[in-house]
């Protein structure tokens, strides 16, 4: 049998290939080692720079902390001072605005600056208008100082009442006031608060007239008209001058209603009455035909309010007493706020404290406002003037009217008081009892 052959190893060519592969691998490892050495060298070179930067930051923070600690009291005091100054400025702005509009409007403007943008919204409000009867014509006879003394005292009292009732004062036109209930904030009791405010305003007139007497000025009366309706309210004007205002026919109608009032009177419209009737005391009703209104309007004279407010105007009952001898007068009809140019003759035939019956040579319409001069029996004119509103007429006798005195000079009041006292004394002596 032939002898066994030994196993054959890798060929020379295969060994050479393996050696070549190992050499390539070694070359790659050498390159990677070189790259790592370069990276390590760069990291070592920049480590000192990074360490220095971090140390510098730590030093800076330490310095700032030391400064804050050293000056903390000063910084705190400065911040507190700035806060106090800001609070004072805010209070000044609020107090300044509050002299022109209600606190509700001020809050709306300060809390929501967009409220200063021009524009408005439609909403239902109750409008109150007040006016001092005969004041504009009376002011023509007073010194400027006397006019301002009265106005400042009167408005001080009225504004206090209105703001306490949460009304928004839209206009102060001399002795006249335009007030909203229901804007900028609407409440369920807007109409009720408006009527209660009107009652409180009338009740304050006694104190105002007491000051008038102390200052030697004539006593005056105020009329108030109230109406509930839809209006447009908002900021009116331009970018330079803006005011919170109201527009709409309801405003005009409120003015008409106020023009029918006599001194000490509150007249409300049917819409206001509908919302407040449950708590009101109404002394009487009257039907009028306001200009610009299609149908006659029933107005309600409010004398009190029941319930939570419990307000009541003094009861004024007067009896006109015939005079044994008529008092001669000269009168003019007020045209708007001012006395007309034509003077007519008339006679006072019946007299009470606040009212009188006149016989006039020139007929006058109901609710006309008159300016009168009284004459002594000798024909001499009594110093001073009196103002009155026609409250009753007779269609069958146009020369006969009843007027309610709205403002009397001290001389005119003294003269009429003397006439009444003499007449009462004469009647008592002749009949044994007062008229």
Classification by helices and strands: alpha+beta
Largest pleated sheet = 9 strands, mixed
Order of helices and strands: HHEHHEEHEEEHEHEEEEEEEEEEH
Shape: elongated
How many β strands by DSSP?
Answer: 17
Radius of gyration: 45 Å
Q: In whole angstroms, how far apart are the ends?
A: 181 Å
Percent helix range: 40-55%
CATH superfamily of the largest domain: Nucleotide cyclase, GGDEF domain
- Under CATH at level 1, the class of the largest domain stands as Alpha Beta
The figure for the number of domains is 2
Number of helices: 8
Low-confidence stretches: none
Which strand-content bin applies to the residues?
25-35%
Mean pLDDT score: 80
Q: Assign the CATH architecture of the largest domain.
A: 2-Layer Sandwich
From the 3D structure, determine the CATH topology of the largest domain: Alpha-Beta Plaits
Explain what the structure shows:
- This protein has 435 residues and is α+β, with helices and mostly antiparallel strands.
- It has 2 domains: 103-111 and 120-236 and 243-312, Nucleotide cyclase, GGDEF domain (Alpha-Beta Plaits, 2-Layer Sandwich); 321-431, Beta Barrel (Thrombin, subunit H), CATH 2.40.10.220.
- 43% of the residues lie in helices and 30% in strands.
- The protein has helices spanning 12-98, 103-111, 135-139, 144-164, 190-214, 249-259, 270-276, 410-431; strands at residues 119-132, 168-173, 176-181, 219-220, 222-237, 242-247, 265-268, 280-288, 297-305, 311-312, 321-335, 338-339, 344-351, 355-360, 369-374, 386-394, 397-408.
- Strand 2 and strand 3 form a beta hairpin.
- It is elongated.
């Amino acid at each position: 049998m032939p002898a066994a052959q030994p196993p054959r190893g890798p060929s020379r060519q295969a060994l050479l290939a393996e050696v070549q592969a190992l050499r390539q691998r070694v070359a790659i490892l050498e390159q990677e080692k070189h790259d790592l050495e370069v990276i390590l060298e760069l990291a070592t070179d920049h480590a000192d720079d990074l360490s220095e930067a971090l140390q510098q930051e730590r030093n800076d923070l330490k310095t700032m902390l030391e400064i804050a600690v050293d000056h903390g009291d000063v910084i705190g005091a400065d911040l507190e001072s700035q806060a106090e100054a800001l609070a004072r400025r805010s209070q000044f702005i609020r107090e300044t605005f509050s002299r022109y509009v209600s606190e509700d409007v001020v809050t709306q403007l300060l809390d929501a600056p967009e409220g200063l943008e021009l524009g408005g919204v439609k909403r239902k409000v109750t409008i109150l208008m007040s006016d001092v009867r005969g004041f504009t014509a009376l002011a023509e006879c007073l010194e400027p100082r006397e006019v301002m003394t009265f106005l400042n005292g009167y408005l001080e009292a009225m504004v206090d009442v209105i703001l306490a009732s949460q009304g928004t004062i839209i206009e102060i036109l001399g002795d006249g006031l335009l007030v909203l209930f229901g804007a900028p904030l609407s409440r369920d009791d807007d109409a009720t608060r408006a009527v209660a405010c009107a009652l409180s305003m009338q009740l304050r007139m006694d104190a105002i007239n007491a000051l008038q007497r102390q200052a030697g000025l004539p006593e005056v009366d105020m009329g108030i008209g109230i109406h509930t309706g839809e209006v447009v309210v908002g900021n009116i004007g331009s970018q330079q001058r803006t005011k919170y205002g109201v527009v709409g026919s309801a405003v005009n109608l409120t003015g008409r209603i106020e023009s029918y009032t006599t001194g000490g009177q509150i007249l409300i419209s049917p819409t206001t009455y509908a919302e407040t009737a449950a708590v009101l005391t109404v002394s009487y009703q009257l039907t009028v035909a306001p200009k610009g209104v299609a149908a006659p309007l029933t107005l309600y004279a409010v004398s009190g309010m029941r319930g939570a407010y419990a307000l009541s105007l003094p009861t004024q009952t007067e009896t006109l007493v015939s005079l044994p001898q008529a008092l001669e007068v000269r009168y003019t009809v007020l045209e708007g706020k001012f006395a007309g140019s034509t003077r007519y003759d008339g006679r006072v035939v019946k007299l009470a404290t606040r009212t009188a019956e006149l016989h006039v040579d020139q007929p006058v319409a109901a609710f006309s406002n008159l300016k009168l001069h009284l004459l002594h029996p000798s024909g001499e004119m009594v110093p001073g003037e009196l103002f009155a509103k026609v409250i009753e007429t007779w269609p069958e006798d146009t020369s006969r009217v009843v007027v309610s005195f709205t403002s009397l000079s001290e001389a005119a009041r003294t003269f009429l008081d003397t006439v009444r006292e003499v007449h009462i004394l004469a009647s008592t002596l002749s009949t044994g009892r007062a008229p």
